[in-house]
TrEMBL record:
Pfam families for this protein: PP-binding
Domain Carrier: 7-85
Species, as recorded: Cryptosporangium minutisporangium
Name of this chain's protein: Carrier domain-containing protein
Top-rank taxon, per record: Bacteria
PROSITE patterns linked: CARRIER, PHOSPHOPANTETHEINE
Keywords of this entry: Phosphopantetheine, Phosphoprotein
Annotated segments matching region Disordered: 63-85
UniProt keyword Phosphoprotein, yes or no: yes
């Protein structure tokens, strides 16, 4: 089990991959790819869970309508740019 991240800690690639795997991402998928979360096979329920986990861990509320169109890298950058100080 991973230890909760505090809002003062930036989201890393490993943190994001862990969240995505926890909500059903195929472990063989390369999250460094430019594909969107939707193209990587995450459905709307999985994306809602991703948004909830990010809000809980990092204090960043995501607009669920834009999340499917983001790549994992873009999502990580968005979360890190909006983290509370």
């Amino acid at each position: 089990m991973t230890e909760p991240t505090t809002a003062a800690t930036a989201m890393t690639d490993v943190d994001l991959r862990t969240i995505l795997l926890d909500v059903g991402l195929d472990p063989d998928v390369d999250v460094a790819a430019d594909a969107t979360l939707e193209e990587l096979g995450l459905d709307s329920l999985a994306l809602l869970e991703v948004a909830t986990r990010i809000e809980d861990r990092y204090g960043v509320r995501l607009d669920e309508s834009s999340t499917p169109g983001l790549s994992p890298t873009a999502l990580r950058q968005l979360v890190n740019s909006q983290r509370p100080a």
